[in-house]
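Page 37, continued from 36.
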């Protein structure tokens, strides 16, 4: 379906009875899940191929004592990424207390769960300095013993 057909179909939903809307939603969600499963399986294969090729290129670069290759198809270069996690909370907290600005060690993101818990215990008041965005949505559960 092209974008115009989709727009026409979406506009037609306004006149659809509630039971048909729920049925459409459940069927669409199931179809999307099946398509996602197929995509994820294919994506895993692509990732496996790419990771294997990358490992062979790294090994070839090590053997040849170079950092990368220039070919007619593209240029490669060795790079390093870091993945960091906390191994010892107490040791890290002690380290942070000794830093002039410990907040520099954190990403700029607030825990939604912690803010929600705070608000639940503070008559709905949010901590100062935060924007709270609420979106009302409709959740749909599939009926057991569907027709």
């Amino acid at each position: 379906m092209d974008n115009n057909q989709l727009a026409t179909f979406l506009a037609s939903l306004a006149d659809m009875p509630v039971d048909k809307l729920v049925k459409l939603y459940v069927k669409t969600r199931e179809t999307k899940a099946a398509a996602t499963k197929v995509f994820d399986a294919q994506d895993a294969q692509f990732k496996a191929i790419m990771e294997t090729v990358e490992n062979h290129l790294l090994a070839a670069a090590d053997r040849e004592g170079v950092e990368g290759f220039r070919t007619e198809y593209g240029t490669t270069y060795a790079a390093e990424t870091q993945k960091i996690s906390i191994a010892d909370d107490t040791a890290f907290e002690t380290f942070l207390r000794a830093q002039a600005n410990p907040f520099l060690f954190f990403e700029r993101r607030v825990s939604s769960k912690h803010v929600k818990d705070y608000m639940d215990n503070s008559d709905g008041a949010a901590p100062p300095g935060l924007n709270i965005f609420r979106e009302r949505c409709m959740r749909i559960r599939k009926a057991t013993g569907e027709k």
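The longest strand covers residues 70-71. Flag for discussion at group meeting. The two ends are 27 Å apart (CA to CA).
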